[in-house]
Amino acid sequence: MKTSHCFLRCDGLIILLLVMFLSSVSNLATKINGSFDARGTKIDSDPKRISNSKGGGSPPQGKEYPLCGLNNPSEDGIIYAPFCDKGYVFSQIKFADYGQPSGSSCETLKRGNCGAPATLRLVKENCLGKERCRIYITDEMFGPTHCKGPVNFVFSAICKKT
Questions:
Q1: Nearest Cα to 53, choosing from 143, 125, 124, 135?
Q2: Are residues 89 and 143 in the same domain?
Q3: Domain membership of residue 7 as a residue range
Q4: Same structural domain for residues 115 and 72?
Q5: What is the DSSP secondary-structure string of the chain?
Q6: pLDDT of 137-147, one tens digit each?
């Protein structure tokens, strides 16, 4: 009788350990594709907080297509999550600025006078070669902007078929 009682308790313990192990492996997998801030520190992502990308890219017509978007952190949240369509990856980051960029279209974007200097480098590090990436729109990510007034994040890239 004692052996069957221990047997049931031991099975429950094994199941509990298995569930805990699988949960930790699943949690680790969600953090593999993280972002890095201006200091090179990895920032873990929380998938529940990801806002939709305002990418506005054209549907794929061939081997590559442009993707462009704007994020106003005070209105859109601090996470910008651009993504290419399935089967495409970011092959080129044409422009990225966190500050007060100018330009009326993706083709005419220009860096503002007060933007964070590390923006383009960090976006390239976090997005190139990936189908999707998460960009945290904060001073902690890019460094201070020194802008007076509201800041925006503008992003322009090329998605290429893999």
A1: 135
A2: yes
A3: 1-32
A4: yes
A5: -HHHHHHHHHHHHHHHHHHHHHHHHHHHHHHTT-EE-TTS-EE---GGGPPPP---PPPP-SSEEEEEEEE-HHHH-SEE--BPPTTEEEEEEEEEEEE--B-SSGGG-B--SS--TTHHHHHHHHHTT-SB--EE-SHHHH-----SS--EEEEEEEEEE-
A6: 998 899 888 89
Q: What is the pLDDT of residue 62?
A: 83
**Beta-bridge partners for 155:** 69, 96
Residue 24 pLDDT more than 60? no
Same domain, 44 and 81: yes
- How many Å apart are CA 24 and CA 39, to the nearest integer? 27
Residue found by looking up tokens 């949690």 in the block: 27
Say what percent of the chain tops pLDDT 90: 44
Q: Which residues pair with 90 in a beta bridge?
A: 159
Enter the pTM of the model: 0.64
For residue range 42-101, list pLDDT tens digits in order: 444 333 222 333 344 445 668 999 999 988 888 888 999 999 999 999 999 999 999 999
Same domain, 48 and 110: yes
- Residue 50 tokens read as 């990801």
Q: Cα–Cα distance between 95 and 11 in angstroms, integer?
A: 56
